[in-house]
């Protein structure tokens, strides 16, 4: 169940790509399938072990192009263990809403992105998330839960300013290139869960809707695909923002020399 549109991100075979806060690895796996040189980054060692195992299984099964590479790295989003400008593409999917010092995390993403590289950030969309918070405090008060609700304007502002120097000298801001919405079919499920109890998986309505979502993911029936396309712009649970890091004079000159 992907949130990011990798065609829109501009992912190409051989790109050095980072999945920051990869969790179970869904985006990292897709980038690997597309021929990326992937680093799946997270602070959960157990999750990363599972991601590494699946990377290995994918390669052994011939699911990735020749030359594609993938690895995992454990660490802190506020101190990424990578060089400046190391990555061509970066994905940070459904992670910033969990981080108190989100601006510091964003600055790190911008730092490790190369000039001319692209960044996709997804977070819960404002309206569906507000409804969830209103219906249930347990939804966001759980350990490791969501600590803020973003508007698109707030997040665009934080990211576009993240590349500017702290000393006030001129610097190129990140360029906002557009937004999408995803997982419109999933929003009613979470409204139901918040209304009946987020841990009440056996409630008949929650159970029935969960079966519908499993059917959508596993079988991808045409009717639900159409329903999703209609609901995504209206109540899509996730908002995805796309950015590009401006090229510098040095990076343009290097490109011209290639």
From TrEMBL:
<feature type="domain" description="Methyltransferase type 11">
    <location>
        <begin position="18"/>
        <end position="121"/>
    </location>
</feature>
<dbReference type="InterPro" id="IPR013216">
    <property type="entry name" value="Methyltransf_11"/>
</dbReference>
<keyword id="KW-0489">Methyltransferase</keyword>
<dbReference type="GO" id="GO:0008168">
    <property type="term" value="F:methyltransferase activity"/>
</dbReference>
<protein>
    <submittedName>
        <fullName>Class I SAM-dependent methyltransferase</fullName>
        <ecNumber>2.1.-.-</ecNumber>
    </submittedName>
</protein>
<keyword id="KW-0808">Transferase</keyword>
<dbReference type="InterPro" id="IPR029063">
    <property type="entry name" value="SAM-dependent_MTases_sf"/>
</dbReference>
<dbReference type="GO" id="GO:0032259">
    <property type="term" value="P:methylation"/>
</dbReference>
<dbReference type="Pfam" id="PF08241">
    <property type="entry name" value="Methyltransf_11"/>
</dbReference>
């Amino acid at each position: 169940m992907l949130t990011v549109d990798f065609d829109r991100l501009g992912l190409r075979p051989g790109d050095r790509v980072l999945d920051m806060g990869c969790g179970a690895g869904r985006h990292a796996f897709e980038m690997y399938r597309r021929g990326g040189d992937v680093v799946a980054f997270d602070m959960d060692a157990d999750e990363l072990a599972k991601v590494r195992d699946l990377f290995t299984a994918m390669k052994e099964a011939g699911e990735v192009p020749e030359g594609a590479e993938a690895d995992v790295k454990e660490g802190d989003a506020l101190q990424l263990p990578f060089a400046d400008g190391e990555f061509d593409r970066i994905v940070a999917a459904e992670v910033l809403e969990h981080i108190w010092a989100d601006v510091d995390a964003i600055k790190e993403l911008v730092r490790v992105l190369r000039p001319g590289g692209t960044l996709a950030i997804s977070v819960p969309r404002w309206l569906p998330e507000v409804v969830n918070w209103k219906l249930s405090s347990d939804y966001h008060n759980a350990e490791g839960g969501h600590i803020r609700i973003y508007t698109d304007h707030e997040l665009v502002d934080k990211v576009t300013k993240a590349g500017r120097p702290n000393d006030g000298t001129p610097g190129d801001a990140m360029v906002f290139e557009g937004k999408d919405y995803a997982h419109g079919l999933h929003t009613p499920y979470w409204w139901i869960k918040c209304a009946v109890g987020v841990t009440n998986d056996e409630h008949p309505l929650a159970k029935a809707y969960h079966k519908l979502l499993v059917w959508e993911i596993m079988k991808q029936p045409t009717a639900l695909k159409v329903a999703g396309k209609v609901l995504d712009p209206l109540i899509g649970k996730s908002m995805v923002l796309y950015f590009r890091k401006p090229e510098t004079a040095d990076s343009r000159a290097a490109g011209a020399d290639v």
